[in-house]
Structure formats: structure tokens, C-alpha cells
Amino acid sequence: MKVIILFWGLLTCCQIYSQPKEERLICWKIETEARYPGGAVALDKHFSKIRYPEKAKKEGPSGVVLVQYVIDTSGNIQEAKILRGVSDEINREALRLVYSQKKWIPATQNGRKVKAYRKRELLFTLQR
Questions:
Q1: Burial (0-12, 13-18, 19+ Cβ within 10 Å), 83
Q2: Which residues of 19-57 are buried (b: 16+ CB within 10 A; e: fewer)?
Q3: What is the CATH number of the domain that holds 103?
Q4: pTM reported for the whole predicted model
């Protein structure tokens, strides 16, 4: 029974890919989280640089976009996708912000660098 629970824990933690050994894992739960240079303050500052799309300004949609992305073993952003969006224009702006981040300090698991998932909510509202 212990073997089954351990195996299930590994399946829920990581996805295994057919890539080189050091880049095979994408983990949700890891020993050392990926870190943004400058910490949470710098990351919040980066995401405050929202450029509200012109078309969206005219139509007036607002709301929260939920984006998921992977930080690879080099600290780069990969596989960003919208989990909950507002409009096409706003969703594109959210992806632009995600992909324009600086390189991260990668996550580690068992002393090895691993890919790690991150999620971020971005609030899009018009100031009147």
C-alpha cells in the first residue's frame, strides 16, 4: 500500500517528459520554489505595467485574467496559457506581460533544477 501512495504522490507532483534527464520534470510541489530577481516586489512592479488595449478601452471589458506558465531549468518562461480570460485583446496583453518577465532563478528538487508551474492573476480595470 505504501508503494501505491508514494507512486501516486509522484504522479500528482510531476509530469515526466521525453527530454534530457535534467529537464524531464515539471513540478507543482518542489523543495525550492523558483524565485524572481528582486522578489515579490519586483514581480508586482513588472505586472503593474499593464497596457490596456485600445479596443478594450472602447468596449469596456474588465476583469481578472488567470495565466499559467512554466519556468524552465534556465529560468525562462514557457508554455504560458490563459486559464480564465476576459477578452482576446486583454488575454494577449496578459500573455505579453508574462513572456516579458526577466529570467527567474529556477526551482530545485533533490538538488537538481526542474521546471515549475506558476499561476498569476492579473486584474484589468479602467480608471475613470
A1: exposed
A2: eeeeebbbbeebeeebebeeeeeebeeebeebeebeebe
A3: 3.30.2420.10
A4: 0.72
Q: Are 116 and 70 in contact (CB under 8 A)?
A: yes
* Number of folded domains that form the chain: 1
- Give pLDDT tens digits along the chain (128 positions): 333 333 333 333 344 333 344 444 555 567 889 999 999 999 999 988 888 888 888 887 888 999 999 999 999 999 999 999 988 999 999 999 999 999 999 999 888 999 999 999 998 887 65
Cell 520534470 belongs to 25
